[in-house]
Amino acid sequence: MGISRAGATRPAERPPWYEDGWRIQAEEWARAQLAAEGMETIGSIEEARMWALSCVLRIPTAEGPVYFKATADMDLFVNEPSLTRRLGPLFPGRVPDVLAVDEARGWMLTSDFGNPVGGDGPVADIVGTFRQWSAMQRSAADHLGELLAAGCRDRRLDTLPDQFADLLRNTVALAALPDGASRRLAAATDVVPRVCDALRGYAVPDSLVHGDLHMGNVAAHSGSFVIFDWTDACVSHPFMDGLLPYRMSDARAREQIREATLEAWTDVEPLPRLREAWELAQRACIAHHVVSYGVLVADVPVALREDLGDFFCTLVDEFLDIADGMS
Predict the structure, then answer these.
(1) Range of the domain at 69
(2) What is the pLDDT of residues 40-49, one digit of tens each?
(3) pTM of this prediction exceeds 0.85
(4) Are residues 57 and 88 in the same domain?
(5) Tens-digit pLDDT profile for residues 237-247
(6) Closest CA to 147 of 205, 103, 203, 86
(7) Given 44, 65, 96, 188, which residue has the most CB atoms within 10 angstroms?
(8) pLDDT (tens digit, 9 = 90+) per residue, 279-294?
(9) Which among 166, 146, 257 is positioned nearest to 207, based on CA atoms?
């Protein structure tokens, strides 16, 4: 399944939640769904966040706050309401509790699951999150057909070289790079299949990948971590979710997160080989996220393109450093 329309660009339209009348329709739908669940709103519905990629509303009820979310229609994104609902039975208490969905419009209601841990949270929370998440991935490896049927993108290692090549034909994404970067990127494309081939030499199976795993998308709730914001979900090598620890400057924290992550996979490879695979996967992980951000940069409204483009350029620089080190 492709995730990028090479050379194409979507018109820079505003998301529907900026249009007149949309908020009224969303609130009416939310109130109706809550009433069907026997839940009554007890105050004004408030905007929690609104930007080009999503709109989140906070709805007060007698049972506690409920959250409405609408997600933009992007080439990279899954249908988040549908997928989140399907993940619930697999991972109860570790993904948002979905109360209602409108798959056609990309709307969902979820119970409150607490505040995000955030980027300034303690290292212990990051370690705990990755330990829990890797255990979830180990379980999810047995459900690949179900996950793909639920809409997860197929981004397994076999697909990454072609997806990387597609990015190099995406003129909108490449326009966000500084002069000369796209030529250097094209010259380094052979790195991607080489890394993927080497990583396939380890017995770590494909699994569910969150695609944007950082502590802004994790909440501590009822004794576990709730992982949310599943728009970038895909099926791939599980270590593609290692971008956060791979980029950390604290070597001790990186080691702790690595060891917590690898615990779940010791049934498929001995720990020394898992450590080898983890280090090797850093190269594929950066390439994976270069593709992700390149597709997003090409797909978002122009007003947001510069913000996402900055991180896209950073990832490209990191990938080129890796390529230079392998030449």
Answers:
(1) 16-111
(2) 999 999 999 9
(3) yes
(4) yes
(5) 999 999 999 99
(6) 86
(7) 96
(8) 999 999 999 999 999 9
(9) 146
